[in-house]
Protein 1
Amino acid sequence: MSEIHLLSTEQLITGLQDKQFSSLELTEHYLKRIDALDGKINSFITHTSETARAQAQAADEMRAQGDKRRLLGVPMAHKDIFCTQGVLTTCGSKMLHNFVSPYNATIVSNIDKAGMISLGKLNMDEFAMGSDNSSSYYGTVQNPWNLERVPGGSSGGSAAAVAAGFVPVATGSDTGGSIRQPASFCGLTGIKPTYGRVSRFGMIAYASSLDQAGSMGKSAKDCAYLLQPMIGHDPRDATSIKHDIPDYVQDLNDAEAAAGDKPFEGLRIGVAKEYFSEGLDSEVEQAVRTALKQYEDLGATIVEVNITDPEITLATYYMLAPAEASSNLSRFDGVRFGYRCENPADLVDLYTRSRSEGFGPEVQRRILTGTYALSAGYFDAYYTKAQRIRRLIVKDFDEAFADCDVIASPTSPTAAYKLSEDLDPASMYLGDVYTIAVNLAGLPALSQPVGLTSDGLPIGLQLIGQYWQESKLLSTAHLFQQHTDHHLQHSLIAKETV
Ligand code: GLN
């Protein structure tokens, strides 16, 4: 029982089915770990221990009565960007420090309906803006592999909680890399699906045309289990798309059954020199190239492709994302919900002070940049131009996918770094160089662990797929994980027993 948190989601499901443990015992095990160890990493903002216990007990009763839902009674936790009815939903911001959501995000309801047990709400960069969880109003999050390092962001709490063995899987959101980069920093697998695959209803908006929810776990199969209940058309999200619903876990099992000793025969992996550019850490490059060689040894063919210069992509993202954010965040004005300043003199004072006091510096920086880019006189020069480049990024990916099935790259140019007061925002933005094109194009992508640096920090490999090819991405990672053990390495905190 003491190492139950090192099991995969599938092993947890089997254990529940075979009555090796009950959902209540499982839940208590994770709650005890969170209680004893989260003080070291600060991954949770809100605990829902009491409802979790009640749900686990109910799940055990339902199972005894023959309920066969496969995720019934399996614990998880949500990034605090998803609205959860009756539970504090802060989005990592002082602006929402007192916001108890009156409704559930669609994915929260769907995961509930699948019978999973939510243990709470996870820390994150404020309004999902950031790459190291340092902008959270609730404090920084420590990387469970090395407490002096950042966990990545913005889904830093999600990544840290899974890597620490506090939950087997967690939800995240990804606007420019916020699932993939923290997954990479914390030695996890994390997938951002095709734009429109998962409902955005009830996910607090950062940049609506880029935001997409996804799943994080120790392996591709863990991700597949959690992603399943998340997907599907939702009439409450106008950008949600009707599309076939695959069974991801079944797809992985089928891929495994069909695989011979060269499981990747016929798979063309595109590699772009633009993704191995200046600024890429040599140990990261080495691990990624070694993994690519392993893919080749297992039958894959590596082909050279071209994609848009990442520097151009970076500038495009950091124009469009703040522009959308400035519009989305205008709803937080101190009037109907969230933070309100003390003793406003008049309405303008109420707006101004509530927003200046409620938003942190990174969020304010983006609102200002975005407002500037959208203002009359600058709109064409910045916003329209960025939209045009966005179209070219889509075209470049389309052309690249004519020659390959998936594109591989490092997820991040470096492994997890130390938090430093002097890290200027522009250098932090540079860390997103390999992840953001995917969001601009709306493509699915995942990050999977491919080794450790000499300091023992995880390194991630990104796989990008064509639209709707989540199954292909997951099976490409899953079959690799059948032949390697990077995903089976555990962080320092995960190795602690309580
Ligand atoms: N680091 C990127 C940013 O700060 C991506 C964030 C995200 O994906 N939510 O915008």
Protein 2
Amino acid sequence: MTRLARALALLCFALLIGAPTAEEAEDFVATYGRYAVAADQAVASQAGAEMLEAGGTAADAAAATMLALGVANPASSGMGGGGFLLYYRASDQSLTFLDFRERAPGASTPDMYDDVPESMGGRANSASQLHGLASGVPGEPAGIEAMVQRFGKLPLAQIAEPARRLASEGTVVGEATSRMSAAFSDQMKRDPVMRGWFGPDAALLPVGATLRQPELARTLQAFGRQGAAAIYRGRIAREIVRANNRFGGKMTLQDLADYSVVEREPASTQRFGYRWVTAPPPSAGGFTMLQSLAILEGLPARWRPTGEGGPNAAFLHALAESWKGPYLDRERYFGDPDHVDLQIERLMAPERIRARADAFHPTLANPPADFDFPLAPEEPDIVQSDNAGTSHLCVVDAEGNVAAVTTTVNLPFGARYTAAGMVMNDEMDDFARAVGEANAFGLIGGAPNLPGPGKRPVSTMSPTIVLDAQGRPVICAGAAGGSRIVTAIQQVVMNQLLFGMNVREALEAPRIHHQAHPNTLRSEEFAPLPDALIRALTARGHEHETIHNVATVQTIRIHHTDDGVRLEAGSDPRKGGRPAGS
Ligand code: GLY
């Protein structure tokens, strides 16, 4: 497929991310005094709040919310996928990052997609996006178990119960799920379980229909009783391998048995008076945000963003320019840090940041190459080991613990087949299918991110917690939306911290996105930039394009008051979620 065709595919995905109905968008922000959950599905926020009411921690609530999300909107996440947790524990003020991203099966090779036919019909149809070869080994069940064992208080059976109930009794299909099903219904109907979700001759899952998932309910019950072992070994593991292989994949029981969660040092930096803590590699998202903040802070004083003037043309221009360099670094250097010599310190070296800040022109958009400062003398070695759709939620509990989780099956309905009721991911598309080729999000793949046994693909997911000068968490944030995840998070957080917006204003504000390739500044149909701003940006030389939205963000603002806290929780109106809390 050509780059142009992939860019068009990308645009289609942007259009697919559902706009909510007016009714769904009504209560997307709420304020609480004890605890709060912000997810992109109301029933999932409620599942989390149920755990908090029962005395659970933010980890228990995040786990219940994740499981319920996978039931209520199987297009975006679920047990067949994976994700990242960033956790702030109030008792010792520690920050922990758990990586439960999918891993490439043992049979994966750098050239595994070279000879596979490109088109299997319909959208997102390449072998890294559809069916068995597209699936990494799921990490979600192990991740949930790890976070509950580490930070939780409640039994897994209690945590899994709201999701089991929803799967068994049925959930109401929302706008986003319906829209995504319309685009992929033909492919989904090739799977016997998903076929059963559609009425006779139905071309989509209608908004308001009841979606019952009895197979998934049984899997959730087994997970609640036996933990992750129920998924990675025994009957369900055999079912995963059978389904994957039936759809052309090469996953084995050994791949499942070998899966493990990795704890990593979170990425963090002090900028604009706050400590920003976010995802380390294999996410490139955290790196992009931290580098962008460093460049912005390093600009000469007269161009540096301040609270004055709001997010005006000068600020949006500086933002777009600040992202170009880090996205180029991503293309060239990023891969699984356990398999690639990823030299983050060299990439973040102050002289490199200064060179990028020096290359910035306040009234001219530079070509991305002007921000390209390759590491000398040569690119890092790639160390191939021998053995070698998305949703974000935030929780703050009554003890002050904070959980930021981003979870994904990658493209809508993952690889569009199920195993034991679970939608299986197509996370393999986050690898480079070939060096220089773009994935579904238009991200160009580099050699360090080629597939290999046991590798984790580069991600943009960036669960983020920002702390104030006293070390208290003040914002939890994260997003879904492929390559646009991190640029959206950065704007929603800066809107609050720099421009004094409340959560409603910060979520409603127009967003922009730039990822160097294509060399195009994107703004939203959902929240249009005023024409004058577009003119001011194009006058600086930016190519401009409108897409439906720039990701969907969930955030909680934690206001510390004399009496305790005030929690302002928001679920992005772009996806129709609602927060819950007390
Ligand atoms: N699958 C989306 C991401 O990991 O960035």
